[in-house]
Design goal:
The protein is an alpha/beta fold. The protein has a domain at 11-173: 3-Layer(aba) Sandwich (UDP-N-acetylmuramoyl-L-alanine:D-glutamate ligase). Helix content is 35%, strand content 22%. The strands form three sheets. Strands 3-4-5-6-7-8 form a six-stranded mixed beta sheet, with helices on both faces. Strands 1-2 form a two-stranded antiparallel ribbon. Helix 6 crosses helix 7. The longest helix has 15 residues, at 201-215. It is globular, with a radius of gyration of 17 Å. It starts with 10 loop residues before the first strand and ends in a 5-residue tail after the last strand.
């Protein structure tokens, strides 16, 4: 996609294609050291944040985002792990930290519709006067929300993009023929790459969807669990 990726490790996972067995969060001081070492050495054009498991790691990344507020920030929301996988984690505290510390600095949030509906049913958005979870995320300060699998009409789904100024756009979404591991991960990365190349949010989403729809058809099953995108196929 025309970019060179740099990574900052936020947790070590013991997992295979079927399940995650253990999560060891990285110390917040080490997350900070990793990220700032890269940011001070190279001109980073966009930042993508994936799953976060502790309030401390969210706090560190929120401070980094504040110090580099000129760099577009993409936040991919994923399912929070079972509390048995991480010692001393409070899921509600992690959600609150995401909403209060990181969302106000986020250019675009990428999230699965069913995940947001699950959070809504659990009361995660009870403090917001919003008709939908996406509107609650916008109220938290995120500039844009991209929801995958959002209902468009009976039997049809969409990628729904919503902005702070009531902008909306939608694209056809089709459930993958086979369950992919982290289906929205490649989309969030593709959006980040397009933002890094200078596109605005709406252009980046449209370009990223074209890339991901093509790559999603190239999957294989190396183990006993979810399928993976075959990244070695051009």
């Amino acid at each position: 996609m025309g970019c060179h990726a740099l990574s900052t490790l936020t947790a070590i996972l013991v997992q295979d294609t079927a399940r995650t067995e253990d999560i060891q969060p990285i110390a917040p001081e080490l997350i900070d050291d990793q990220a700032r070492c890269l940011l001070e050495d190279m001109s980073v054009q966009a930042i993508k944040v994936g799953p976060l498991y502790t309030t401390e790691s969210i706090s560190v990344l929120a401070q980094i985002a504040a110090d580099y507020s000129h760099v577009p920030l993409v936040l991919q929301l994923g399912r929070l792990p079972d509390e048995s996988l991480i010692a001393d984690i409070d899921i509600e505290d992690v959600q609150m930290a995401l909403f209060e510390l990181l969302l106000p600095q986020t250019d675009i949030v990428v999230a699965d519709h069913h995940l947001l509906e699950q959070w809504h049913s659990q009361g995660a958005f009870s403090d917001y006067e919003a008709a939908t979870p996406a509107e609650a995320l916008l109220q938290s300060g995120a500039k844009w929300i991209l929801t995958s699998g959002a209902p468009l009409r009976p039997g049809h789904g969409s990628y729904m993009l919503q902005g702070q100024q009531n902008q909306t756009a939608s694209w056809v979404w089709q459930a993958p023929a086979a369950r992919l591991s982290d289906a929205d991960g490649p989309l969030a990365c593709a959006i980040t790459a397009q933002l890094a190349r200078g596109q605005d949010v709406q252009q980046a989403v449209e370009s990223a969807l074209a890339i991901v729809n093509a790559s999603g058809a190239r999957s294989f099953q190396p183990g006993m669990g979810n399928r993976l995108i075959n990244r070695s196929t051009p």
